[in-house]
Amino acid sequence: MSDVIYPRADQIRGRLTDMGDGCHEPRLIAHPPFDLLTDGGDGPYRRLRVDVGQTGFFAGREFRTFFQADLLSLQTAVIHAAIPVDIILFDTSLSVDSGTVQLSLYAGGTAAGDWTALPVIRKNTMSVAPVVAPQVSLKTWGTHTGGVLIDVLRLASGKASSVGATQGTERGVGPGQYYYHLTNLSNQTANVIFTGWWEERV
User: How far is CA 101 from CA 51, 65, 194, in A?
Assistant: First the structure.
């Protein structure tokens, strides 16, 4: 057996494909959805669309924060992260322009004192991005004792330049109460900038 060509309306011909089992079926050409292709979906230069961002970025579930402070010698600033859902922590960065600062991360413990909320900002603020309310909240300038030490990062600046460091690749973080301690270990004032970037899972 072989394929069968048959006439259709308006002088268009159709093809029935030999399926090899004694039957013929109309020939179909698979085409990906147009929104998965560039160049309008059917242009001469179409390619599979590949975006640089994560799905969570376009879904509006990625957020960031920052904190800046001048820490006196041996002073500690505490950042409290209340995390009610699973998150992917993509980045935690620290930079200083003088002195030596140690960042210690604790899980659990006891919080006290007066706290000031830190900003939680959407990573994607494009006009087409959905507006999703963050579930993670951060605050600072209170006090914290106890808890389990789960990470440490120490950063010493040069005399004429600022330096920065990051806690590395992304990690999955479960719900809980987490506390960052930023401690100036030097005998001079240190200007500290702390930043964070995460995705909230659904």
Answer: 37, 19, 11
